[in-house]
Amino acid sequence: MAFQIFLLFIIISLLGYIIYLHIRLAKKNIYIESTLKKYSGLRKGMSSEDILSLIRGMDSTGINKPLFSDRLFDEKPLDFLMGDLQEEKIFIHYTRYEADAKNIIKEGFMFSDSFYKTALPVTDDRLDLLIKHNSKKTFGDFLVILAVSARLFDLYYSEIRNRGLKEVSVENVLTESPPAHKESSDMVYIFSNKFVKGYINHLTGEITRNPEFDPSYDSPAFRMNLERFQKRV
Known about the structure:
By secondary structure, this protein is α+β, with helices and mostly antiparallel strands. It is 48% helix and 17% strand. The protein has a 5-stranded antiparallel sheet with strand order 3-1-4-7-8, with helices on both faces. Strands 2-6-5 form a 3-stranded antiparallel sheet. Helix 1 (2-39) packs antiparallel against helix 2. The protein starts with a helix and ends with a helix.
């Protein structure tokens, strides 16, 4: 008899937990639906306050509690990240250790084959940034910012197209060290440190700037890279 009562208690507890999960899920779905309606067509014009309001709303529904303590969308970090979007192509990369972020400032950004495997483009759509940040922030607390003058980027993009270079990206060209093969046979490139703006600790909002940052930097090595790629055609 005691066992049957215990078993009944377990069943009732499980049913209660299932109902609780359904209520919580419904609450999240209502919040997401209302958020999408609210910000549809207004994403590019979202202010820092809008983003913070969205984050707090997610926290109140339990969608993403850790985001509540995130400082990336405070005014200063957000301005450091997005303040020059009209003149620059901006990308972000997450790293777990501050020593790695400091090394990227000093040595440049290393990537294998495709730059976009670990570097995400930033647009003036702040909700898009929130989604990207939310999905990638577990890769590390330090967000490295890479930025290239839009004029310089477009110049080398046009050069690549005019020369008929296939499977070559602008990021492959904007390197000063010759590419090298890894043991895995991937080609490794080092994006010039002149295009590393700095990094943000997105948990604290602390900003570290690169004193050598120059988004318009145009090294003779970039032209040499074009010639080297041309010889492969």
